[in-house]
Amino acid sequence: MRKLWRSILAAVLTACAAFSFPVSVYADTWEEIRQTSYETLPDTDSLEGWPAGPKVYAKAAIVMDMDSGAILYGKNIDERLYPASITKLLTALVALENGDFEDEVTFTEDSISFLEYDHANIGMKPGEIISMKDAMYALLLASANEVAYAIAENVGTKMGGGYDTFIQKMNERSAELGCTGSQWTNANGLPDEQHYTTAHDMALIASEVSKHQELLDIMETLNYTMEPTNLDPEPRSFEQHHRMLWEGNYYYYDCCIGGKTGYTDSAGTTLVTMADNGQMRLAAVVLYDYGTDSYVDTRAMFDYVYGNFSKVSISGAERPEEVREYVMSEPYVVLPAGIELDDLDTEIIVSDEKQAAGKLVYRYQGQEVGSAEVVLTSEYIESATGYTTRLEPDHDGQKGAGQEDGSMSLRVKAVIGISAAGVVLLCVGAAAVLAARRRKKQRRMIRRRRQQKRLEREKKHSRRPRGGRKRG
User: 269, 262 in Cβ contact below 8 A?
Assistant: First the structure.
């Protein structure tokens, strides 16, 4: 008997050794990979005169000014990686642009049957109906995977197709925004080898999302309760997962105005964060990061940009002869101290030849530091594209290409003058409205924070988001 027990014990110890060795090797390898990624310097450090950026654990990372497109920090920004649930930012954008908050979202068997035990969800059932508004909160706060599918299915149907129609639109919209390294095969970001993106592409998508106040309002929300549905008499409540939005949380960042979290085994931790300090609106993206390192990395990148860069107006600088006028009232680039406008190169991109619309891109040693929407001269449009425009005379007094010879009548000049004055008044009025909206938004954010503090004091416990490693 004693010999038998010795044999059993030896077998157990051998088995334990066999299993513990790979785990140890894996742990060492994981930490090695993480440390190697951290020691990889950002690509922007190679720019002459550019301030050295922080090291980050993420495999790819970027900070971009959302209004000018200036790339201020970059590490492997064009490397294709898996996005996980930050995919849902594009899902929300396409749904908002092709649907309505008052639309109904009906859940089918297809929208639920794919779920596995570790997929983030809110327990929807086939035949259950909620509003698009509730669905958007479930999508962006709870990161519910079945809700993402149902949104795509219902909006796709509204577009005259189905789920695949919505996915096709995601790819089309992504390309329209200038994304060059992305491909989307689903609406929730669950693993698929053909579903990938880049840090730069996600920053472009985040910038477009930030233009929609409805989506910013959702992303700023900490808690949301969905009313009972036709199949469930109980309300559902869910919380914001992005820790940089929770005041009092260790990772809280005062300038944070929204974002989206993501995680799968193949994607690692992914995070998109939007920030506004009153001077610059930034989008930060980290791909293949490691848990809460994503928040540490994001904070370090934001602090680096806000501490080293500022806007530089280009409206007073000499305008390229191909440009008639700027569309933006105050076009600018973003530069660190020591780099001047004279150090920049420009590129003109024609976006609409019929309207002579284009984009003037500013670069420093190949790095984009800002861009401005412009109206191009008719001569340039014709030389660049061969298209003859029917524009009014260019700013230099020469008639536009395709226009008949002869000077304008006084009546035409008067009409143009009155129209120009009207445009100026409209611009002034629009600027005043935008400023008022921003002030109102800032007041609203302050009120929300005060209300949250009061609620926390009254309930005598912290309302921090729950942890977890569910995929989504």
Answer: yes
